[in-house]
Amino acid sequence: MSNFKPSITVLYFAAASTTVGLTSEVVTIPQSGLPLASLGDLLISLHPNTQLKKVLECSQWSVDAEMVDDPEKLVLRGDEEVAVICPVSGG
């Protein structure tokens, strides 16, 4: 049996980066994969006592530089680059 643990790289921008204090991190996901819709809860559990839940509620996901319209339909298998895209306010 292999000890391989699939992982993804999460990129944080704008408010998400400010909230967690990082611009990116590598996150281990379950061997069976992780629905993109569940990633927010995983990230919130890794960064307790932050405003990440609030930031994620108004953010979108990008996987491998492509915006995701329906996070329920996408399962992360490992090696993806997932970005938290926060709303941008214009001035």
Automatic annotation (TrEMBL):
Superkingdom of source: Eukaryota
Modified residues (Glycyl adenylate): 91
UniProt PTM comment: C-terminal thiocarboxylation occurs in 2 steps, it is first acyl-adenylated (-COAMP) via the hesA/moeB/thiF part of UBA4, then thiocarboxylated (-COSH) via the rhodanese domain of UBA4.
Modified-residue entries (1-thioglycine), positions: 91
SUPFAM superfamilies associated with the record: MoaD/ThiS (SSF54285)
Biological role stated in the UniProt entry: Acts as a sulfur carrier required for molybdopterin biosynthesis. Component of the molybdopterin synthase complex that catalyzes the conversion of precursor Z into molybdopterin by mediating the incorporation of 2 sulfur atoms into precursor Z to generate a dithiolene group. In the complex, serves as sulfur donor by being thiocarboxylated (-COSH) at its C-terminus by UBA4. After interaction with MOCS2B, the sulfur is then transferred to precursor Z to form molybdopterin.
Similarity-based family: Belongs to the MoaD family. MOCS2A subfamily.
UniProt protein name: Molybdopterin synthase sulfur carrier subunit
UniProt lineage: Eukaryota, Fungi, Dikarya, Basidiomycota, Agaricomycotina
